[in-house]
Amino acid sequence: MSYINIVIYVLLGISVLIGFIRGFKMKRIYTFLFLVAGFCGYMVGLPLARGLMDTALGSSLLQNAYLSILPESPLMASAYDSSFVKDALTEVGIPNFFQGIFSGKIVDGTSSMANAIASSFANVTITYACVLLIFFIVFFVLRFALKPFWDGLFGEEGKSFLGRVFGIVIQAAKTTFSVLVLLAVLSLINEFLVKASITGLNDFLVNDLALDNPEAFSIGKFFYNTSSALLTWISTL
């Protein structure tokens, strides 16, 4: 058996053992909760923020608050001109890397540059506040709603029979993903070495995984070909 196959089998075997011992505790679903809460925060938070910007909170209270702390200068006092937004943000002290966040959030372009910048700051503040608020609400509601169901299905410690089965599946999936990433990196390194006329690693891979024999099958060869295909797919995006 090839060296790479042995390593993969050992890693999968260890992952099965770890998954069985750990079970399927509630904290292992936090990634799912983060994704759901993040999606809800984005889909609900943005429309909510746009609505609030049309109220006194955004268009008057917050905007005036930011307007009061902006520096006084000829540029800020001049009429709004989109071509000078970058200069205005630089004058305020916003680094170039973050200026795109604010330049695209201007909602008041009817008067001075200062009012435009202040409206951008108010819009960004409300947007992030709404997204985070919805995120935390959804996250904690789902967390507490799922807890009783989770305990009944997988056990309080996640170590019921079903909990251990799910623990094995999740741990094996994580190990599989890690192996694919490692082999993708190995495949990428091999490509660079071959282009540099260094074929030692390529010769090892061909011999160890029987890459030149289309009829030969092994778990290592399957993983390596899959990771190479993923790299090719990513490069076309």
On the 0 to 100 scale, the average pLDDT is 86
SSE class: mainly alpha
- In DSSP terms (H or I, runs of 4 or more residues), the helix count works out at 10
Reading the helices and strands in chain order gives: HHHHHHHHHH
Q: Please report the total strand number as a whole number.
A: 0
Structure overview:
By secondary structure, the chain is mostly helical. It has ten helices and no strands. The protein has helices spanning 3-22, 30-53, 56-69, 74-77, 85-92, 99-103, 113-154, 161-195, 200-209, 219-236. α1 packs antiparallel against α8 (161-195), α2 (30-53) packs antiparallel against α7 (113-154) and α3 (56-69) packs across α7 (113-154). The chain is flat, with a radius of gyration of 27 Å. The mean pLDDT is 86.
Q: Can you tag this structure with a few keywords?
A:
single chain; 237 residues
Quick summary:
The chain is mostly helical and 237 residues long. It contains ten helices and no strands.
List strands and helices in order, with pairings.
Layout: H1 3-22, H2 30-53, H3 56-69, H4 74-77, H5 85-92, H6 99-103, H7 113-154, H8 161-195, H9 200-209, H10 219-236
